[in-house]
Specification:
53% of the residues lie in helices and 9% in strands. By secondary structure, the protein is α/β, with parallel strands linked by helices. A six-stranded parallel beta sheet has the order 3-2-4-1-5-6, with helices on both faces. Helix 5 packs across helix 6, helix 6 packs parallel to helix 8 and helix 10 packs across helix 13.
Amino acid sequence: MAEGRVIVVTGPTASGKSALALALAEQLQGKGAGTVINADAMQTYDAFPILTAQPTAPERARVPHALYGVLPLSETLSAARWRTLASAEIERCLSAGRTPILCGGSGLYLRTLMQGIATIPDVAPEIRERANADWQLLGPDSFRARLAEKDPAIVQRLKPGDRQRHVRAWEVATGTGRALSDWQADIGTAAPWRFATILLAPDRGWLRDRIESRFDVMLGQGVLAEVRQVFDRAPDPRWPGLKAHGAPELFRHFRAELPLEKARQIAIDHTRQYAKRQMTWFRHQMTPDLVVDPQSAQALGVVAQYLTKTEV
């Protein structure tokens, strides 16, 4: 493969990204063999490999994989931090003569890597801790109103109940003396590599069925025991990794608030809604080099042909 080229396989959840990236990496064996690098926020955490559909041990044995299950649930993974981690893995691949294949549906993370991001100074941990305490003390509405006095532009972009992003905006404004929206307006240097972006765009009905069947497969693979193990640890509900689709619903089931079938259905519905938001984001925020129908038996061949044709 061309030196300095990075392949990106993206699309909505359950669209078949991991399978395509794996098959592509195997096809590249012997000519810049591929390494699959995770570009999905939740797959970066270590506690829910089944729930977040991380590659299995046999799949990882077939080709190298990176950035899967490397962080504890308690750590915050921002787009900027992922960019740093992914950049290091890309450089490692290219230095070894391998082809980096970014795989995941976190579109903001991918855009941050490809187009750049503002470099925001580190903020003292005690400011974040105080902001989290204020969120609990004041409540979401009052916290949001207070943040609007410092950064009205960011408040307009945030969902009212999104604690993590509201707290982040407050800590940046407080810790740096400058609004987060101002920092975000200063885009940093774009990545130095050339990207070939492959977007999987499935039929909506097909994807809805896939999301349901995948969750049922997870149940058969032992996802209840996996999530129960975390639940029994009484984790801090503010931990970012607990946002994995299905975890909040199964937690409610373990607290006897929902029967399993109801928790299953809510988890599936929430995942479908997320997939819809992803596709909207991709349509408006990304210009892929190639759009592929994952339902097609020729999907891999189409991608491989495109990459060969555009190789420099």
